[in-house]
Description:
Layout lengths: L1 H14 L10 H4 L3 E3 L4 E8 L6 E4 L2 E4 L4 E6 L7 E2 L29 E5 L4 E6 L9 E6 L24 H4 L5 H7 L1 E2 L8
Parallel strand pairs: 2-5, 4-9
Antiparallel strand pairs: 1-2, 2-3, 4-10, 5-7, 6-8, 8-9
Amino acid sequence: xxxxxxxxxxxxxxxxxxxxxxxxxxxxxxxxxxxxxxxxxxxxxxxxxxxxxxxxxxxxxxxxxxxxxxxxxxxxxxxxxxxxxxxxxxxxxxxxxxxxxxxxxxxxxxxxxxxxxxxxxxxxxxxxxxxxxxxxxxxxxxxxxxxxxxxxxxxxxxxxxxxxxxxxxxxxxxxxxxxxxxxxxxxxxxxx
Length: 192
């Protein structure tokens, strides 16, 4: 039965039917949406109710080449920034041929930023003001392949790139989890 449910869920996701995963909570349900007409996946930039932790939700998604991700800021000032040397000399954690992105600090409630992904592979990204707090996310486009995002953290110390902070490393979903679930909600969203 579980296999059938997983297959149905996967089929609905990839044919473009709007969906949401919720723990009987409308805020969590709003975290994930898919626009069939535009091939857009939405990721919310959120905080806990007390404002003591910040996170992307979902924290991990599997998309296909050519799809666009739209980040939506719901509170505070955030960014979505690819782990790439062009972004403040951060460690390279996106495919080598992929273009890095940086939304800069977004201002205002419901501010958005979009990026279209064309190269297959693993893409790790962070929020500039909250990276040290572990506000990170991971996107897999098509197949993970064997790119920088699949390597251990600090895989090239000779490059002298800025390392991924420990709190950030601890918050990435695994590649296996994303490939299996397709969407990984942030553990911090469960209580909202």
